[in-house]
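Notes from the 1:1 (GR / supervisor)

We went over the backlog. Supervisor wanted to see one worked example end to end before approving the batch request, so GR pasted a single chain during the call. The sequence is below; no edits were made to it. Supervisor asked that the structure be written out right there so they could see what the output format looks like.
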Amino acid sequence: MRPKPPIAPRTTAESLVRTTLSLGDASLRADYVASVVRDADIASLARALDGVCEQAEQAEAPAREALLSVVDALNAVGMEDRVQLLREQAAGESLLALERLLRQPVRGPESAPPAAGAKGARAIAIGGRPMTLGERKSLARRPDRDTMEHLLADPHPDVIHRLLRNPRVLEDDVVRLAARRPGRADVLAEIARATKWVHRPRVRMALVMNPATPAPIAARIAGLLLRPELELVVGSPTVPAPVRAVCREHLERRPPVEATEAAEDEDRVH
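Structure output shown during the call:
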């Protein structure tokens, strides 16, 4: 069982960044931030998160690094109610940086993603016969490369959940899965929740660029993108207009960056 650092009675941006970065493991950081989001007073939490977002928008390195864990925590299963409370608090107090992170872009009918559920999706056949969900989930824990190629096309998010945690899966595999068209919203959400992979810049970009990624998740990940990445998203006609609009707002607030920033950011997540 992972140790959990104590939560300060009143959360501030400085304490949240400092305590988060004191933890060495990305999963432990995400767990800590999730515990703060669940337990802290919603008003002080919203102001603290807004401060972290503002600092991250100005490319302050500690805040950018802590924001990775904030996004991990907010994307976790079961956080929807707290996210909605934070969204309402941000709107009520005009916490604009937090509002951008938590925005729930409204898609038009022309940009609606494929259905999220796995119902009716075709099961993967391996060895000449369709396999049960239980068999596929078991294989996802330790497949060979041929089996893995089949499982990467599996329509069920539970299979993908296990596959993403298999040490034999490569970044190229995850990028290809995140970029697949047409995409499946539930599968893309699983990728966004996989801390190991969503911290990789190529995976983040593939998720934001995929029109099937759930819009609130894409908007949160957009807050992590660097200026050149935001420019690519804003200029892409395949990205839904509401997600491009969020990226445009982030882009307007990003200061000029050094050419080495992207490399430094990638080094930090490996």
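Supervisor's comment: The radius of gyration is 19 Å.
Batch request approved.
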